């Protein structure tokens, strides 16, 4: 199976001592991998390093065989991302935001823009200024921007933040459909175990900057009734006890 992303010994420490240490994992074509951990555990740092937005002190990150450190532009040609907050021009409409992004991708035309607007359920609001959007609507537009170029790898940081139940289910369905029909790979960070469990086929447990485990969802749930139980068992193994 084709390896899309490979992270080896990723270490990135900040002056306050926080960061990530010796993170290693890989993603295969069509995988939906969940990075599960509490806020501040290092999930966003991992994603930023993969996207070339920050650099590890000791690491090797390759995407489609290209090294992020030495060739970030070529590396990101087939990558879409939504990290922290969507990069939105609030004085523009949703459609014009997508048109601005499309300027970087010659193959993206008006038909593709309309497809993405409809897929993320914001087509009826496409002419409205984004400054009026709710948090959930901005998240939908952020996802639309991330998948606009029809990337082969999509990196999403808390993609359902601000969405209601229906919106969360719709985003989950988009992710699963792209994976099943196009072989798109996803790396999704979340602190919500139920959402990772319902969306992903593999899970990486990140805690205090360390990767505690990387398993298929099937294996993680083999001896645990829920992913939440699996997460707590891994944290307990590390701490020796769980603080409630």
UniProtKB/TrEMBL annotation:
Gene3D superfamilies for the chain: P-loop containing nucleotide triphosphate hydrolases
**Alphabetical list of InterPro entries matching this protein:** AAA+_ATPase, ABC_transporter-like_ATP-bd, ABC_transporter-like_CS, P-loop_NTPase
A molecular function GO annotation: ATP binding
| SMART domains found in the cross-reference section | AAA
Please tell me whether the keyword ATP-binding is annotated for this protein: yes
Q: What are the entry keywords? A: ATP-binding, Nucleotide-binding, Transport
Q: Which residues cross the membrane?
A: none
Q: Where is the ABC transporter domain?
A: 5-233
The family this protein is said to belong to: Belongs to the ABC transporter superfamily.
Q: What is this protein called?
A: ABC transporter ATP-binding protein
Q: Which organism is it from?
A: Aminipila luticellarii
What does the record give as the organism's lineage?
Answer: Bacteria, Bacillati, Bacillota, Clostridia, Peptostreptococcales
């Amino acid at each position: 199976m084709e390896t899309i992303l490979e992270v080896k010994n990723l270490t990135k420490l900040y002056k306050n001592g926080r960061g990530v240490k010796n993170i290693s994992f890989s993603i295969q074509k069509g995988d939906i991998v969940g990075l599960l951990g509490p806020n501040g555990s290092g999930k966003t740092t991992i994603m930023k390093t993969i996207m070339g937005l920050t650099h590890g002190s000791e690491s090797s990150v390759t995407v489609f065989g290209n090294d992020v450190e030495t060739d970030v532009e070529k590396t990101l040609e087939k990558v879409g991302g939504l990290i922290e907050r969507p990069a939105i021009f609030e004085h523009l409409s949703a459609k014009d935001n997508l048109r601005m992004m499309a300027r970087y991708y010659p193959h993206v035309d008006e038909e593709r823009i309309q497809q993405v607007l409809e897929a993320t359920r914001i087509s009826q609001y496409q002419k409205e200024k984004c400054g009026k959007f709710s948090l959930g609507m901005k998240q939908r537009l952020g996802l639309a921007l991330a998948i606009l170029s029809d990337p082969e790898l999509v990196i999403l940081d808390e993609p359902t933040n601000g969405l209601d139940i229906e919106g969360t289910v719709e985003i989950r369905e988009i992710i699963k459909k792209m994976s099943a029909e196009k072989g798109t790979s996803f790396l999704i960070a979340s602190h919500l175990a139920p959402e990772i469990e319902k969306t992903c086929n593999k899970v990486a447990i990140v805690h205090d900057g360390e990767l505690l485990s990387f398993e298929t969802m099937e294996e993680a749930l083999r001896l645990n009734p829920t992913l939440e139980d699996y997460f707590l068992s891994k944290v307990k193994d590390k701490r020796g006890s769980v603080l409630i």
